[in-house]
């Protein structure tokens, strides 16, 4: 299969639950060896989309092709899945758990190789119910990789992890990509998506509303930067010279394409610059601009 041929091709994919159109005619392709991030607020349709890509849910309409063919037994043998929530058997060790899953596949990676790749050495003899959050996620990643998959689906893999454990997990995901594997990642962490993904798809109301590399999406939607300072430092009657000023959570953000003009306006109003910060636009800015700031239900 040529490297420029998509590993997964999705055309006009739709899925409804009663009157709810969860996924509404989306089309995209996933290149071999890439890491693709699927982002969206609660209820956007991303979970239903991923479950169809994994073969767990049947599409209402549209096609999903793996290596140019409909999902079949070959796909199930060549795909690895790390679910957002997975129950592991109690009263057996992490090592025994790996052996149990290994025996489900005709082809597998040697357990010793997975132990090294996912840093499992310290808790191989520990019961699964006694693992920390980070240890459990590394074990679940090893299970997803046990059949030496061509494509790996990671559904919110770092939810609940502390910052150190999350960044250690990012390292493992980068190493998977470095071995030529294709990764499909769903996450609510925008920094995670920016750091790991070659391509990003943002969904809302069942449709893809933005698609591209992280940097190209930011360049397409923004031509400004954010000047930040504490709200107490900026008077309510500040003359913004037409720049957009946002106040929230004790902070002020001034959106401007001309930092010098923003600082001159602040100095003209005798605003202290001691705590001023200037930052580039982020995926979180883009996500909120495209999907809104309203709180969504989990459903």
Give your account of this protein's structure.
- The protein has 10 helices and 14 strands.
- It has 299 residues and is an alpha/beta fold.
- It has 2 domains: 8-219, P-loop containing nucleotide triphosphate hydrolases (Rossmann fold, 3-Layer(aba) Sandwich); 222-291, Alpha-Beta Plaits, CATH 3.30.70.
- It has a 6-stranded mixed sheet with strand order 6-7-8-3-9-10, with helices on both faces.
- α6 (163-178) links the parallel β7 (151-155) and β8.
- The longest helix has 16 residues, at 163-178.
- The relative contact order is 0.15.
In the CATH classification, which architecture of the largest domain applies? 3-Layer(aba) Sandwich
Continuous helix count: 10
Distance from N terminus to C terminus (CA atoms, Å) equals: 39 Å
Strand order of the largest sheet: 6-7-8-3-9-10
SSE-based structural type: alpha/beta
Mean pLDDT, to the nearest integer, reads 92
Strand content: 25-35%
Oligomeric assembly: single chain
Shape category: globular
CATH class placement of the largest domain: Alpha Beta
């Amino acid at each position: 299969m040529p490297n420029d041929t998509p590993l997964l091709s999705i055309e006009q994919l739709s899925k409804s639950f009663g009157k709810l159109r969860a996924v509404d005619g989306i089309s995209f392709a996933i290149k071999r060896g890439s890491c693709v991030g699927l982002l969206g607020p609660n209820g956007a349709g991303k979970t239903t989309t991923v479950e169809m890509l994994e073969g767990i849910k049947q599409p209402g309409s549209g096609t999903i092709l793996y290596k140019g063919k409909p999902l079949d037994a070959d796909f199930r043998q060549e795909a690895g899945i790390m679910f957002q929530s997975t129950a592991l058997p109690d009263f057996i060790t992490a090592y025994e758990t790996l052996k149990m899953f290994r025996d489900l596949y005709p082809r597998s990676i040697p357990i010793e190789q997975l132990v090294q790749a996912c840093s499992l050495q310290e808790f191989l003899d520990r019961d699964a119910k006694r693992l920390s959050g980070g240890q459990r996620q590394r074990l679940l990643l090893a299970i997803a990789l046990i059949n030496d998959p061509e494509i790996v689906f990671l559904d919110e893999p770092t939810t609940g992890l502390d910052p150190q454990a999350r960044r250690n997990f990012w390292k493992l995901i980068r190493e998977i990509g470095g071995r030529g594997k294709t990764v499909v990642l769903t996450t609510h962490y925008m920094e995670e998506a920016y750091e790991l993904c070659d391509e990003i798809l943002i969904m809302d109301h069942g449709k893809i509303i933005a698609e591209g590399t992280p940097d190209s999406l930011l360049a397409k939607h923004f031509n400004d930067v954010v000047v930040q300072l504490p709200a107490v430092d900026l008077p309510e009657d500040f003359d913004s010279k037409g720049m957009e000023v946002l106040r929230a959570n004790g902070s002020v953000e001034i959106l401007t394409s001309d930092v010098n003009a923003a600082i001159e306006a602040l100095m003209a109003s005798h605003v202290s610059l001691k705590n001023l910060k200037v930052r580039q636009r982020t995926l979180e800015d883009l996500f909120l601009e495209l999907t809104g700031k309203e709180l969504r239900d989990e459903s």
